[in-house]
Structure formats: C-alpha cells, structure tokens
Amino acid sequence: MREHAVAVVAGDGIGLEVVPAARQVLDRVAEIHGGFRLTYREFPWSCRYYLEHGAMMPEDGLETLRPFDAIFLGAVGFPGVPDHVSLWGLLLPIRREFRQYVNLRPIKLLRGIASPLRDRGPEEIDFLCVRENNEGEYSNMGGRLYRGTPQELAVQNTVFTRFGVERILHYAFRLARERGRIKRVTAATKSNGINYTMPFWDEVFEEVATQYPDVEHDRFHVDALAARFVTDPAHFGVVVASNLFGDILTDLGAAIAGSIGVAPSANLNPEGTYPSMFEPVHGSAPDIAGRGVANPIAQVWSGAMMLDHLGYPEAHGLIVGAIERALLDGIRTRDLGGAAGTVEMTQAILDRLEG
Amino acid sequence: MREHAVAVVAGDGIGLEVVPAARQVLDRVAEIHGGFRLTYREFPWSCRYYLEHGAMMPEDGLETLRPFDAIFLGAVGFPGVPDHVSLWGLLLPIRREFRQYVNLRPIKLLRGIASPLRDRGPEEIDFLCVRENNEGEYSNMGGRLYRGTPQELAVQNTVFTRFGVERILHYAFRLARERGRIKRVTAATKSNGINYTMPFWDEVFEEVATQYPDVEHDRFHVDALAARFVTDPAHFGVVVASNLFGDILTDLGAAIAGSIGVAPSANLNPEGTYPSMFEPVHGSAPDIAGRGVANPIAQVWSGAMMLDHLGYPEAHGLIVGAIERALLDGIRTRDLGGAAGTVEMTQAILDRLEG
Ligand SMILES: CC(C)[C@H](C(=O)O)[C@@H](O)C(=O)O
Ligand SMILES: CC(C)[C@H](C(=O)O)[C@@H](O)C(=O)O
C-alpha cells in the first residue's frame, strides 16, 4: 500500500465547496483501487487568510509545501483583494518556484454534455493543450513611468529562453507520441506581429520537431488557431502554446467543451523534483459561492489527473467514466443546464464509481 | 458630385480576385447613389513586387499614399516571403505611420449565414470590436541574445502609452453611444497575469468610463472574454481590446459569425489627418488563390465601410442589405457551404443592389 501526502489548499469561494466534494471521490477511488492511500494536510491559505495575516501564505509557505507529493488547489480570489496579492502571492509563485513548467489541460467534450458548437460530438472535441507555465508573457518584468500624467507609459516584457521553450516543446511531442488521439502537435504562434519572441519560438519548434519524425506538426497564428477551435476542433491532437496564448486557448477550449465548470488542469513538474499542482481552470466564482450550486466536476477531474500523475491511470479512467455516466443519466449542475447542486452531482459520481 | 481618390493595393493571392470584384460593387453603388464618384489608382505593391524590386513598396510609398482619401487593400503574403518582409514592409507601417489607431471590426452574423454556434441567430451575434492598432504588443521592440546557443533568449516589449490608450477608449465609448446596438463597452484585460501594462489599461479604462455615464461598461480577462464570445455573444455592444487581444478576438468573432471569408475591417485615422485603410480580416489565402473560389464578401463589406467613412452610411446599408439578400437566396461560396465562385457571388450582390 503506497501512501501519498497531498497538500490541500481549498482557497476561496467555491474552492471551499468543490475541494471537499472531490476528496470524497478520491478517497472512494483509493478504497476501490486498494493499492494506494492519500493523506491530506489542509492549508487555510486564501484571501480570508490574507485579510487576517497580511499575506496569502506564511513566509515559509513554499518550503512547507515542498515535501508533499502533490498540491490539490481549489481557487483563490476574492472581491476587494487585488490580483497582485491573491495570485502573485500564492498561485503564480507555486507554479513558478516549483518549476511546474507544464500546464496540461484536456479539451474534451464529455459524453452527456452538449457542446455549444452545432453538430460537434465527443469524437470531435478531444485533444490536449500544453501551456508553457513558467516564462513568456507572465515574466513579471516591466514597469510604469510618469504615473498619472499625460506622459504616462507602461512596459511589459515577454521573455522566452531556449531552455524554457525546448523543454515545453519536448513535453508536447512526447505527449503526442504517447497519448495523442491524433499524433500531431500544433503550435500557436504570432510571429507575423510579435516579431522577436514568436519567430524564436517557431525556430525552436521546427528544430525540436525534427527529433520526432513519427509525430506530425503544424503551426497556426493564435488568431487563426482560436478561430479553428470553433470551426475545426477535430484537427487537434496536442496543442502547445505560450503562457498567455495557452491561457486564452484553454478557456476557449473549456467553452467549446460545454462549460468552464468542467475543465481540469495539471501544473506539472515532470521531473518530479518539486510537487505538481492540480486545480480546476475556473476561478473562485464569488457570484455563486456558498450557495451549494457549484459544479464539482472540474475539481474532481483535476483530482483524477493527480492520481494519473501519481501513477494510477486506471483510477483516472474510473473517475472520468463515472462523471460521464452521471451526466448521461441526466444529472447536471446549473452551468450545464441541469438542476443538481454540488452535493447531488458529487453523489451521482460516487454512485457510479464501481462501474 | 464629390470625388474621392482611392489608392488600391490588391496585394497577393486572393486579394487579386476579390478587390476587382469589390470595385464593381462600389462603382455600381456610386451610380445608384448619384452623389459621389470614386477614382482609383492601382499600386502593384505585393510580394510579387518584392521579388522583383527587393521591397514591398518603393521608398516613398507612404508619401505616395498620403494624399489619397482612402486606401483599399486586399491582402499581402506569399509562401516563401517572410512575414517581416511582407507585413512589416507594407501593412503594418501603413497602419502605424498613418496613425490608423482604430481597427474597427464588426462581428455580425449576416442573415443567410448559419453560425457554428448552436441556436444563435443574427440578433445575438451583432457587435463591434475596436482594436488598438498602433502600439501595445505590436510595438516592434525587443531582441534576441546568444542566438543559436543553449543560453539563447528572446525579449519582446509591450508598450502602452496613456496617449494611445485614452484615444482608443474614447473612440470605443463614443462609438457605443452613437452606434452600439447595446450601449455598453466591454474591455479585454489580463491584469491578473500581465501585471504592468494591463492594470494600467484598466485604470485608464475606468477613468475614461466616468466621462460616459450614459454608456455601461464592464471588463473581462481575455481568456474569459474569448469563452464568452462562444457562450454569450449577445452580451456585447462594443468590445475594446489591445492590439494582440483584438487580433485574437476578431478572428474568433469572424468564426462565430460564420466565416473568415466574410469579416471586414477598417483601419481608421479618425481625425482624418491621414488616409484610412480598408481591408478584409482574412489573408491572401495562397491555398485557394487563382481558382476563382474566394469569397468576395469580406472585401465588398470592407468597401462598404470605406463608403461609410467617406460620408455615405446609406451606401454602406445598401451593400450590406444586398449581401444579405444574396445569401438568403442561397447563393453562397464554398467557405459558407455553397458552390458559388467569386464571380457568381459578386454578380448576385450586384443584382440585388437596387433593393
Ligand atoms: C497579418 C497580421 C500581422 C495581422 C495582425 O495580426 O494584425 C492580421 O492577423 C490582422 O488581423 O489584420
Ligand atoms: C488567475 C490567472 C492568473 C490564471 C492564469 O492566467 O494563468 C488563470 O486564468 C488560469 O488560467 O489558471
């Protein structure tokens, strides 16, 4: 029996509702599986914590998290607490300091969900997005001059390194080789307008591609690629994109797959030097928090990705199968046009775990 | 009888097919209208021109264009000619040097076109995108270090000025007030990740908004906004966005409105100090060029926007009405699921101009 230590940061808003729901599912799956157990330690780090302590997490927060096997995060963010506090004080430092340079986000239309795209079924919307998660447009470098005057200007630096670009591209090609429904890597670029960093990205992409002759590759400008998510989603196997482009494309991907309430993500440090982090694509959704209506699926599915990462792909399959059966049986939350609450939706998944 | 001098740059690929088609429509509308006439001067500036002369246009190209009342552009780009030549040698300098700081792009589902979004009709997809067209992510500032080595890095600077941000926001608010189907301006931001320039953009947005108390305003992160184009397009009146965000959102907008082959754009210098330029959102489409199958609608509609800009809104209405009637009568190009070629589609529009 293997044991895995999981740091749980439920965070704010609906994070507090969907994280406990997901843990129920994870624990039940561990029981069924029999080969592993999760032990949790909960951290109250959040905007509430910030309002009391003046920081999102203690100064040694990252050190505290470091020995864990994984981090299971809900969502952070609270009206009134600025993003540079809530996100740059917790979420983004974890992604960055723990070298979680891969943000893996499946774009998969689950059986039992209707896509907003006319005539598109689960066979046509099923690919993986690999988002660069450590550098690029989120470099946090820049500044402002002549603040508040007519001469004011602001600069933001996008920084890409060969080191950073090569590793994310290799990850994408390996993933396509091993897991792609179609063995094709599609890169997002914008080298026609963003004329220093994106041509560099393109060059490295073509170089890395030569090392994977068994995997197809192509490139689209991000504007055309976004359009193609709508007009031809079946084209994609693995999509690889910069931090910002990946951010935009995966929210769009969540929309074509039916709801942002369903979309999971994994922030991976593939080498395992640091813990990886699993979190839904959605945020803390203060508008619906505390009302018991949040869709737990994104959090549950993120938990399934955590189990996959810990070495239990069959547990991942069990969970996704149970989610699909619950949806096919018509149990759906409000974001999916149903009436089920968080508890009901979670129970429906639990009931279908045994297959 | 007013005369307007139009510089015509058909460019490459399908530009050579759709520009003449659009001119037929413009000339016929001028006849019907009776109050104005267009005189054209054609410039062969293009990638073909580059291959012969080593530049996309002569050194005094911009000076030559400057006295014109408008520029009517097809598309530039040719396989084998790098973008930094084709785009940075013609399209982008015109946008920039002629202070065409507004890129206006209607996202409008025409009657007779089916949106790829399930159950969305022309009433629900009908808004205006205002894209900042002179600064931001397309600043052309940055560089590369340690080229070709493992230490290589590339930097791109996004630069926003108060001057540039204020003027585009004022344009957007005035447009919403005067023309918005819904009097609301929605701004694209990403201040949670892009933490210098986008908070600046947000601050200026809120300041400018106070001067338009009769116009609603809201803001979304660009990831959520892209998703919302798919899940709730009816929300929007005017969307205002940075150069890059506007680029991505308008291609996505063209996709939800049925086809990139339809989407028009206007690069405006609202003060009229310099000529404005009118061009389709699509590119030169080398894959289908020379086969007579290109959809002329985007070019024709861009021409209609030119007439609107020159002071003839009723001519604009006449053209858009004729396009819609042709589509409703089932005459559609291949990108719209029909079989009509460029000539047939154009003729169908011509035939319906008298209303
Ligand atoms: C060709 C390219 C530089 C251009 C842009 O990104 O502005 C195009 O995509 C557009 O939208 O007009
Ligand atoms: C909250 C925000 C900084 C974050 C991002 O842009 O990375 C979010 O949108 C996401 O996609 O995880």
Bound molecules: 3-isopropylmalic acid
Q: What class, by secondary structure content of chain A?
A: alpha/beta
The number of E-state strands of chain A comes to 12
The secondary-structure element order of chain A is EHEHHEHEEEEHEHEHEHEEHHH
Largest sheet of chain A: 10 strands, mixed
Cofactor (chains A, B): Mg(2+); Mn(2+)
Domain Isopropylmalate dehydrogenase-like (chains A, B): 5-349
Protein name (chains A, B): D-malate dehydrogenase (decarboxylating)
Catalytic activity (chains A, B): (R)-malate + NAD(+) = pyruvate + CO2 + NADH
Topology:
The structure is a homodimer of 355-residue chains.
Chain A: E1 2-11, H1 15-33, E2 36-42, H2 47-53, H3 61-65, E3 70-75, H4 83-97, E4 102-108, E5 126-132, E6 136-145, E7 153-161, H5 162-179, E8 184-189, H6 197-209, E9 216-221, H7 222-231, E10 238-241, H8 243-256, E11 264-268, E12 276-280, H9 297-310, H10 313-328, H11 342-351
Parallel strand pairs in A: 1-2, 1-3, 3-12, 5-10, 8-9, 8-10
Antiparallel strand pairs in A: 4-5, 4-11, 6-7, 11-12
Helix pairs in contact in A: 1-9, 1-11, 5-6, 7-8, 9-10, 10-11
GO molecular function (chains A, B): D-malate dehydrogenase (decarboxylating) (NAD+) activity; magnesium ion binding; NAD binding
EC number (chains A, B): 1.1.1.83
Cofactor (chains A, B): Mg(2+); Mn(2+)
